[in-house]
Design goal:
about 150 residues; alpha+beta; 2 domains
């Protein structure tokens, strides 16, 4: 149940981000179209180049969001393990983590769960750890209490 809620939270986060980026893409396309109607020489070319750069950056961001969508979908049938893997929920004496993608934290049953990427600094430290193992992060020690 908890895993389903965290999964849905991350999925919603990715979908919302994708929708926002698609709206920005449409706005840039509209700006490019209106810039094309202008004919102010060098200023016109500079404007088009700036819009094109923004479109490229936006394309990279959309590709990253789509990759996150694939990562989330791959976790749909994650099984509980003895050690921390991608898809694990990790409860420590300091904080709670969902190892999936970098997303906003999620508050469930008055507990905060940080949705983190396995490549994040804390994610790297958690991967492979077992219950009662300790990790050091930001000059603080944490003990793993449970892995779901």
């Amino acid at each position: 149940m908890l895993k389903d809620l965290l999964f849905a939270h991350c999925q919603h986060y990715v979908e919302a981000k994708h929708l926002l980026l698609e709206k920005q893409k449409e706005a840039l396309q509209l700006a490019l179209t209106s810039e094309s109607k202008s004919s102010a020489g060098d200023k016109h070319e500079t404007g088009r180049a700036m819009i094109q750069l923004e479109r490229e950056k936006l394309g990279n961001q959309i590709a990253e969001v789509e990759l996150n969508q694939q990562k989330i979908n791959a976790l749909k049938n994650h099984k509980r393990t003895e050690s921390v893997t991608i898809g694990s929920i990790v409860l420590t004496d300091q904080a709670n983590y969902f190892i999936a993608i970098a997303a906003d934290f999620c508050e469930l049953e008055e507990k905060k769960y940080y949705c983190i990427s396995p490549q994040s600094p804390i994610g790297v430290r958690l991967l492979g750890k077992k219950v009662r193992d300790q990790i050091e992060f930001n000059a603080r020690s944490s003990t793993l209490l449970e892995i779901l």
